[in-house]
Amino acid sequence: MVVSSGHKRHVAARRAVLAVALLGCLAPGHLLAQDASSPAEMLAPVNVTVTGSRIRGIDVETAQPVFTMDRAAIRATGLTSLGDIVARMPSAGTPEVTPQDTLSSSNDAGGRYANLRNLGAVRTLVLVNGRRWTTSLGGLTDLSTIPVSIVERIEVLKDGASSIYGSDAIGGVVNIITTDRFEGASADVLYGVNGKGDGAQKNGNFTWGRSTERSSIILGASYEDGDSLDDDKRTLTSTAYGPRHPLDGYNMGAYGGVVDPRAAGTAGAGNYAADGSWVPNRYVINHGATDSANLANYHPYDVDSTADKYNTQRDMTFRAGSKLRNLFATGRYNVTDDITWRGMANYGVRDTRSQAAGYPLQSATGRADGLTIDPGNAYNPFPGYDTSFFRRTVEVPRMDWAKSKVFHADTGLEGTFLWGDHTWSWDVTYAYSEDRASRTTSGNINLVNARTALGPTTTIDGQVACADAADRAAGCVPWNILAGPGGTPDAVWNYVTSTTTAHETTRTNDVIANLTGGLFDLPAGTLRVAGGLEHRSENGRYTPDAADSAGLTTQLASDPTAGGYIANEAYLEFDVPLLADLPLAQELAVNASSRYSHYTAFGGRTNNKYSFRWKPLDDLLLRGTYAQGFRAPTVSDLYGGSAESFESFLDPCDSAFGASATDAAVRSRCAAAGVPANYRQVDQSGAQITSNTGGQNPSAFRTGANPHLKPESSITRTAGLVYSPMYVDGLDVTLDYYKVDIRDVITPVLAGDILNFCYVRNDPTYCGRFARAADGRITSLDESLVNLGSLRTEGYDLGMHYRFPQTRFGEFTVLSDSTYLKDYTQRSSASAEPRQLAGYMNGVQGLYRVRSNLSLDWGWKQFGATWTVRYYSGLKDSCWSTTVECNQPDTLNVISGVTGVSRKGGVAFNDLQFRWATPWNGNVRVGINNVFARKGPFYYNVASAGGGSPPYNPAFDIDRYFYIGYQQRF
To answer: What is the pLDDT of residues 363-376, one digit of tens each?
Structure first.
């Protein structure tokens, strides 16, 4: 289904929705003066809905594990982004896209996302007040677009919930509950800065609200400004592989190099390798030399030396800077005693800025047409020859400016009525969401102009000029590409560089109707039911810059995306009390729900969920669930155009560091595929790799969508207990077991995995996804999406909360929440061997065996303090080599297939906050996150694309962080 281009119709619809939603927010305004002093008690709901169920009840203890973080706990973190706050929870993993993802060309870069159970942000459903929020083309929900100031609490359902909410709720549900009643005004400001003096966070918000007996309105505005962090400010990130290997990871240098173009066998032009192939000489201009046309000013290029290479970290952004502006309005109006009209509107704008090192330009960059110095170019050290070259354009770093404009509005009616002896609740909602994103990139090379600037030259008035008059008239300026830094005038850079912009739009129209109430009474209580219908349309479009898409620049090329689908769904949920007020059965009840979903993209499916809760004693609750779930392919998954990507990986056929170096079976498979026995993988600079970390491929690979994808399917099982002993007042203990099995996983198969599956796992499914040259180099590779294999995770959650008896020194509370990861198994295909990844650093995902938060809170009169310890257990990582940083040399690394694992220890970060409630209705909070400035271990498995700056683990604190905040109520 192709998205309509009727722009006027979309704009009209959006304005209409905004008008209706704001009318729902503002309608009570004229009533405020009539009874400005009246309380808002009539607006309070009679009963509540707990995340994970549509059945309303009073103080219902659900059968699902739900973690709740209230406003006080949110403020105690000192964080200003909901994404960062959710990431602090032990059950949350690192999302696919992190703030350190400065190499990504995706419009999702710069956002904050939630990832529950390490299953990915695309498998975590984000709701606001129980309704879906705006998502990107790739199905990600940016939590930074929801201002913290309007959040009343966060409810996290750590369970599958597709039978209630539909697609995406495999890992769990994050439900953001916003404030719906507010009297007066509040202003809140916060300033924070890293211990190094950079990365300052400035946050301010203002909230105003009024309520009467029949109405309530809240208006809010927030602003957040986060400065960027740079790689070169810290020894941890100032080099590609960290301070232990400061001279490794250097890439193509800033001084021009050439490849001898003379014919094979020409004396002095090169030599023959052992396999008989001709290897031409390569030269680099002497540093400081200006006459690039004279070969005497060059020296041989040594790929194993850093003398002519460049440390790209010196120009890289470690964490992107961002600005966020947000406007929020919500309102309620009691039309009658039984019917309420409500509306909400939210508009947020996020700007993100990041920087990458100048482009590594070389002749192969010219794509099919090539890019060489013309035989008649005055700067060619080999006159009369087309001369290949290589040179990083360090003078013009690549800059990315991403802008995301997120709009959400919903409006509807809700009410109650009596049917027999039971109260029923109903609601009807229309929601519209839109995400408009753009990404502007500068610093890439315009290949058309570069080819002209490297073309034949002439001399005019003693100055070198482009030979073709038409080219000169069009602005052509000769480019001395081989000159070092400072040797290229601004006029040339203005001619050969490009600034391009890509645009992305997603729109969601959602109509939801729910009905819930009691059917009839049973001896143990009321049998309650909920049911509802949903009609949702998802549409999206991605339009790359025309020049980028056509391959006319060095920007990663991508094709347009246009498509969408419609989902029609219906669900039914029953809650049945079986026993009550009996010995060993204070309560016994079961809950069953079923949802049918029909998508125009792939058809229909039904998902069921069954759960029980049993209270053998008043202070003990036992619970369990069995839930079927699914994740529908996103618009990007189905209709996204293919795109280029430069990948870092370890080739298992590398004869020194790959699996073939130690595994005879892998060596045999590589040989059978035609890979030379002495094959060595080379990185982007042309140097052979020097460790098990591999290197970045010199040529781009391709990723793409698949219109034949089917949904992922999942089974979630949980079992647990809640224990609140009456003899220990204030103690609550929860223990939950979970197991999630996912089939038909939708995934791009990354380069390293494709090669390992083919050669190490001996899975021929993957061997047709890439091609090699005669010398063994990988020249092309397809990372397109597929429904592939399975994923299983299993573990335990333990929570212990104790509120001490009050003392004359104040009130003390201890809170402990921990997660133990027992199993995380990935299977690449039905016939492949499973990989047990629990306890490994896997890309950007730290699959910790144990994550734990421990907090001690103290409150006395108007003062308070909180000390929090965040613990991450150790992880297995790739060895640097078999003899360096390899404390388990005989252990097989299940990620790379290479023998040898480096086991890194755990780390704990400590946070401290003091607070003071002032006599003038203000609140001061001062805090330090990572009090002892701890640094985590170095992990060489951290992926640069999608994650950040290896060897930094993106889940860890990078510095000590100081902040001070002040809130004033009016």
So the answer is: 877 666 779 999 99
